[in-house]
From TrEMBL:
This is DUF2470 domain-containing protein. It comes from the Bacteria. Residues 165-233 form the DUF2470 domain. The lineage of its organism: Bacteria, Bacillati, Actinomycetota, Actinomycetes, Streptosporangiales. It comes from Microbispora siamensis. Gene3D superfamilies: PNP-oxidase-like. InterPro entries: DUF2470 (IPR019595), Haem_oxidase_HugZ-like_sf (IPR037119).
């Protein structure tokens, strides 16, 4: 009997979380300097891009400085931001080439709505540093591990990610009763506050309570937006 895939392959899931994450802290290996707050985002290849301002540790640091960047992915439910994952990306800093600064700034603008991004594009002010990935440590609450650079960079985020995130927000805002009923059917237990926690081409994850996640795999991975919408509608209406 063939069983459905219940979880996203780890490299894809980590890349998906990275695409939704924002840098919170950066530390310089072997420096003895405490970790400092970080601003920036993640580019299309999964590499952290940091917006570094004058006077900050990394502003005058040489290229190939070994750093660890903490990326945090959150989910806002009920007006409260709750952590989904912590990713610790270890790698070497490189200045973003001048010809690529505008594209890099656009890639991180949503995660880093900072006016200094414009100054970084123009040059002569804040700098954009890219981190050449060595490995990624991931902690997602229920899973943890390490991905090497080859596995991480060779993967890609869920291809339906933008749509999935819009659907998660809509369902959490407008379909609380159906979520609760779905969770009760799946667990056989009464539920109070239920949230749609994750949605991807392999399935959905419900959060019927703190520290409690219920994974619901699709019969087969979905490949189109319409198929994802149908799969979620079936989950909520069964």
């Amino acid at each position: 009997m063939r069983h459905p895939v219940t979880a996203v392959p780890v490299p894809e899931r980590v890349r998906t979380l990275a695409a939704l994450a924002a840098p919170t802290h950066v530390s310089v290996a072997g420096s003895g300097v405490p970790a400092s707050a970080a601003r920036g985002g993640v580019d299309g290849r999964g590499r952290p891009v940091l917006l570094v301002k004058r006077g900050e540790t990394l502003y005058a640091a040489p290229a190939e400085t070994l750093v660890t960047v903490d990326l945090t992915a959150i989910r806002e439910v009920g007006g409260v931001e709750r952590p989904r994952a912590l990713l610790k990306v270890r790698g070497w800093t490189q200045p973003v080439p001048a010809a690529e600064t505008r594209a890099a700034a656009v890639a991180i603008a949503e995660a880093c709505p900072d006016e200094d991004l414009f100054a970084a594009v123009e040059g002569g002010g804040p700098a954009l540093l890219r981190v050449d990935v060595c490995h990624v440590i991931y902690l997602t609450g229920q899973e943890s591990g390490v991905l090497d650079a080859e596995s991480y960079l060779a993967s890609a985020p869920d291809p339906l990610l933008p749509l999935a995130e819009r659907m998660v927000r809509h369902v959490n805002e407008s379909h609380a009763a159906q979520l609760r009923e779905a969770a009760e059917r799946l667990t056989g237990e009464p539920a109070q506050e239920v949230w749609l926690w994750e949605l991807d081409r392999y399935g959905a994850t419900l959060r019927p309570g703190p520290g409690h996640l219920v994974r619901v795999p699709w019969p087969a991975p979905v490949a189109t937006p319409a198929a994802l919408e149908r799969a979620l509608a079936c989950l909520l209406s069964q």
